Amino acid sequence: MTDKLSNFDFAEEFRQRTKAFALRVMKLVDRLPTAPSCRVAGMQLLRSGTSVAANYRAACRARSEREFLAKLHIALEEADEAVLWLELLSEGGHMPEGRLDELLTEARAIMSILGKAEKTARDKQKKASRENGKE
């Protein structure tokens, strides 16, 4: 029971963390310069950065292990894409040096957590599949 409770606590905490990330992305995009390259990168960042939270929430509401893994993987892909757009904005000189460092660090941390969660879920699914095959 304690394990399930701690999993619930982690899921809720991570839901809030991805939502906070999405809000930070939204605020950043609203403050980007109006150059065409910034508008395009900003819209892509807005889409991917908010999609991380939406897809993680969807994973938490999944009706099956397969659906959970699919949504979790989408959230991971979106986090990776958000990292790309943040790197492009930063390295392209569109923002003052260091301005995006904290957001990039958070995006990479979210990616890492999602990657580990996906691996754990896949390993658990494989183990269950092997155990069911032996019965």
UniProtKB/TrEMBL annotation:
What organism is the protein native to? Answer: Hymenobacter arizonensis (Siccationidurans arizonensis)
Which spans are transmembrane here? none
Q: What is this protein called?
A: Four helix bundle protein
> Which InterPro entries does the UniProt entry name for this protein?
23S_rRNA-intervening_sequence, 23S_rRNA_IVS_sf
Q: What Pfam family is a match for this entry? A: 23S_rRNA_IVP
